[in-house]
Design goal:
Strand order of the largest sheet: 17-19-20-15-14-21-22
Structural class: alpha/beta
CATH superfamily of the largest domain: Aldehyde Dehydrogenase, Chain A, domain 1
Number of strands: 24
Bound molecules: nicotinamide-adenine-dinucleotide
CATH topology of the largest domain: Aldehyde Dehydrogenase, Chain A, domain 1
Number of helices: 16
Radius of gyration: 23 Å
Largest sheet: 7 strands, mixed
Shape: globular
CATH architecture of the largest domain: 3-Layer(aba) Sandwich
CATH class of the largest domain: Alpha Beta
Distance between the termini: 64 Å
Helix content: 25-40%
Strand content: 15-25%
């Protein structure tokens, strides 16, 4: 049996259950999954291996919440609860930081920034809850017509492992602000902070059933949530392949889906750019979170006149990068798992086999434990536009750099992948800034900066195979609502 706070210790292992209707529960089928610390390969915790039976219970609890205290709360009261959750998250910042760092290998500073972002999402959406309103519409004489934004009902949230707290915050914060009741399926590699968050939200006063969490494997708990006929909206963040499965499953119930998929986001550097300012962005956007960022800038396109200078200066920054255990707070920690390390190394093997040139690599710290999932940050130069290293999302600390000659060529290269999530443009030429901002096919464009990781206020999402729908900002609230038109005839 689980302790009332949901966490028990079996020797040195933490043991977590599902969180359903404010109760901690073992999986109905009794299964568990062992979670490893990617910094050293040691066992860290066990989580429940939820299946369809657990998802059924969670959806039922969410439905009950909509008919209960949660459903009856005014928008203002919901906003106040979200603010209390935000404050409570910050009170638990040390615990959440340490847990995230051990669970997914995030260096401490980066894990801490994710806790701050989680709190900020609840602050932002807490303040927005009572500011979403419809319109009155001019219509025929004798009628008054108005629109109402209403919650979808039960929302399903399928979360990836790369920014577990940030993505939980952006999706759940907006859904709860609009009055939905949520069922969350975190990634099996990254459940622990979501479960701790549930405990924090309960303490802060979130009514029972407004948030339910079922952990487990994607093909079991995730698939059961995506195809559940009691779910009214699915928010999915993850890979393209899984996104297609989730959209197909939701289509059977005709429910809307928000898909936040991957990217192959470019930064375009023109010869007139302020290189001093650009350089840290060029590198950090590729190696932050060990490159496991959907908005990572994995392609750097540079005007030929400054190409060799940019390669040399980026190379110097790469050589200074230390890769080590998350607890030592290096620039680059381990990747999330040995499985992910193998995927990235397969791409690096391909690069070597095809004769691509390595411009520079980072260095493994002397204290990096042997069992850790470490990958050296790697900058590859002169990579052809059609090579898989320039086309496919690697999700590791690997960047490809190549030169271009003309503005039109830069646009064609930037738009020349299946993806369209984020783009950075570095130039002092005002006309060019606006031309490119319009010509680039992506959900966000940054001019002389690159910051999709932050910016809770800024709508975020993709075009093409990067997905559809927008999260973050005010825009997300409309995505988590359905619009009702009311026409009153009064003569
Ligand atoms: P993934 O698609 O393997 O898993 C994402 C989530 O889906 C996990 O919770 C997983 O358990 C679940 N899942 C797996 N199979 C499922 C199924 N059949 N049905 C329902 N759910 C299922 O992706 P990942 O490896 O966790 O994350 C990496 C990918 O996510 C990368 O491609 C990255 O670009 C993308 N990503 C995108 C964004 C964004 O906002 N655009 C943010 C983070 C990550």
């Amino acid at each position: 049996m689980l302790a009332p706070d949901g966490v028990t210790r079996v020797s040195s292992l933490l043991r977590y259950g599902n969180f359903i209707a404010d109760q901690w529960r073992d999986a109905v089928a009794g299964g568990e999954i062992v979670i490893k610390n990617p910094s050293d390969g040691s066992d860290l915790a066990t989580i429940a291996r939820g299946t369809k039976a657990d998802v059924d219970l969670a959806v039922e609890a969410a439905r009950a919440a909509l008919g209960g205290d949660w459903g009856r709360m005014s928008a203002t009261a919901r906003g106040r609860v979200l603010h209390k959750i935000s404050d409570a998250v910050l009170r638990h910042i040390d615990r959440l930081t340490e847990l995230e760092s051990k669970d997914v290998g995030k260096p401490l500073t980066q894990a801490r920034a994710d806790v701050v972002a989680l709190a900020r999402y609840f602050e932002f959406y807490g303040a927005s809850a009572d500011k979403v309103h419809g319109d009155t519409l001019p219509y025929q004489n004798g009628f008054t017509v108005f629109t109402l934004y209403e919650p979808h009902g039960v929302t399903g949230h399928i979360i990836p492992w790369n920014y577990p707290m940030q993505i939980l915050g952006r999706s759940l914060g907006a859904a709860l602000a609009m009055g939905n009741a949520a069922v969350v399926k975190p990634a099996e590699e990254a459940c622990l902070t979501a479960l701790e968050f549930a405990r924090i939200a309960k303490e802060a006063g979130l009514p029972p059933g407004a948030l339910n969490i079922v952990t487990g494997l994607g093909a079991e708990a995730g698939a059961a949530l995506a195809e559940h006929s009691g779910v009214n909206h699915i928010s999915f963040t993850g890979s393209r392949r899984t996104g297609e499965l989730v959209q197909a499953a939701a289509a059977k119930n005709t429910v809307p889906v928000t898909l936040e998929l991957g990217g192959k986001s470019p930064q375009i550097v023109f010869a007139d750019a302020d290189l001093e300012r650009a350089l840290p962005f060029l590198v950090n956007a590729g190696i932050q979170n060990a490159g496991q960022t959907c908005s990572a800038s994995s392609r750097i396109l540079v005007e030929r006149g400054v190409y060799e200078e940019v390669v040399a200066r980026m190379s110097a920054l790469y050589r200074a990068l230390k890769v080590g255990p998350a607890s030592a707070d290096p620039a680059v920690g381990p990747v999330v798992s040995l499985r992910q390390k193998t995927i990235i190394e397969t791409y690096l093997d391909l690069a070597r086999k095809d004769g691509l040139r390595i411009a520079a690599q980072g260095e493994l710290a002397a204290d990096a434990p042997a069992g850790g999932a470490y990958v050296l940050p790697t900058l590859l130069r002169d990579v052809p536009a059609d090579h898989p290293l320039m086309q496919e999302e690697i999700f590791g600390p690997v960047q490809a750099i190549a030169p271009f000659d003309m503005e039109e060529e830069a646009i064609a290269l930037a738009n020349g992948t299946a993806y369209g999530l984020v783009c950075g443009i570095w130039t002092r030429d005002g006309g060019r800034q606006f031309r490119l901002a319009r010509a680039i096919q992506s959900g966000q464009v940054f001019v002389n900066n690159y910051g999709a990781g932050g910016g809770i206020e800024l709508p975020f999402g993709g075009v093409k195979r990067s997905g559809h729908g927008r999260e973050k900002g005010f825009e997300a609230l409309y995505g988590f609502a359905t619009l009702k038109t009311v026409s009153v005839y009064h003569g």
